[in-house]
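Note to self: the last two entries modelled the partners one at a time, which told us nothing about the interface. This time every component goes in together.
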Amino acid sequence: MNEALLSNQVIVFLLSEATLFMLLAVAFIVSLKVLLKWDFESFTPFQFALERQAYLVSTIILFVFLMKFILVVYFIFSIDALSLLLPGAMCAAGVIKANIYGSYLLILKLFILFLLILWIYVHSYDMRTKNHQWFRKKSWLFSLIFVLIIVELGLDFSYFSNIDTHMPVSCCSALFGQLEGANPLPFGLSVSLLLVLFYLLYILVILTIKSGYTILYILANILFVFLSYYAVVYFFGTYVYQLPTHKCPFCMLQQEYYYVGYLLWGSLFMGTYIGLSDAVSTLWLGKTDMRSKKIVMALLSVFVLLCTVYVAVYYLRNGVLL
Amino acid sequence: MMSKMMIQIENLYRTFHHGSNEVSVLKEINLNIRQGECVVLKGVSGSGKTTLLSLIAGLDKPSAGKVLIEGEPISKLPDLFASELRAKKIGMIFQHFNLFEHLSVNENVTIPLIPSGLKMKEIHEKVDESLTLANIIHKQETLASRLSGGEKQRTAIARALVADPNIILCDEPTANLDRDNSLLFIDILGKLHSMGKTIVIATHDPLFDSLSFESTIVPMVDGKIV
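The predicted structure of the combined assembly is written out below.
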């Protein structure tokens, strides 16, 4: 039996995922029936029954989605804990590369997380209309998410059941040396240019958040989250670790670094996802939410400030940069 | 001139499910109530009066059919909108008063106006007006827990009136009152009727059989209007 599958964290994680999936499967079957026969203008017993079912299904979906947020964090925590079992692994970076499924699974989870937030947006707008104006769009979006969740569950099991605990993996040590060989940064950027773009994009996101330039805002947001990943791994992260060669997105999630990675990545992804969901809602439904914009500004500012503070504190203490 | 339609009920059904059993509490209810009308729903316990009032107030959703308040369908409104409509258009008086026992009369009556966004001065004026109309202003600082049944009911009336709703719904309003207090309550209803309020009362109290003001008695038996 695969040792990774016997770890407490993995058992809890997979059981939770499977349980939530079963709830979603029931919700999906009912929602499909409701979607195909929905006629809000009708006052028949059948339509009233559908409306009651739709309300119940939406509540189940909302509950499952909120649990999925917690599970994504728990997934990261679990794979980080698995690093103790894998030779060569020092953190989740090594564990995620233990087989071909890991990276795809992580990317899929992050994408599903965005769609979940988008669904919550559409749902909240739908609940604030008198005639459930967005019910169909909400249901189709849920259908798409459900299909992706099936794939995710398959990948979850494939990933954890194919972790070979006897096979050495490459971890942060491999990432350490990456800058010495080919440039790992996108578009052939240098670190200094990456930093300039990082701050400029942050300013652009903040400036466009309340403007009518929604497409520009979406593009700035996507580019910001993309470049932020590299900026954190190849620059700001080294100040978190206080080691110029330590370039890892995962080690900062460990106790040794006060779990600061959860705050850093959490504020970046939540800020970006909420911003993108609000912007997509503007384009798709013609709805926008001022409170969301304030939350996005706060989250992204926390992220940028936190990154900057690590560098500033290091400089003030040591008088030099790494 | 004919007054406008306040409440329209079309082919209303309400069925409850207990396991595999189906209990039809309301069947094929059709009723139109105009502005300023007083309608007394009369029937024994279990005849569906309270369920009908809940559906009119948007507190419950029907199994089939429509309820329209001033032309707007309420039977499908999401909770958020149903609450808003109730706050603006409907005042409710319950058999068990439903007061906050640890709050004073004044505070109980003020509560419905808190979300209205009115200035405190306006709120105080409306509360005083409502307490005067319900003849309970002399007890305004008394805790609800220290009131007699009749006083509690008058506080409930003041609370129902404070937002100046067009429709007053009363569910067995005199069930917990002695005869004198019941007559006092009916007196106040008479005043509301003369002010043009639309009143719907669910009761089995014989005192409502011959009211001193114009009213329509709607008998209900086994969930049907007969």
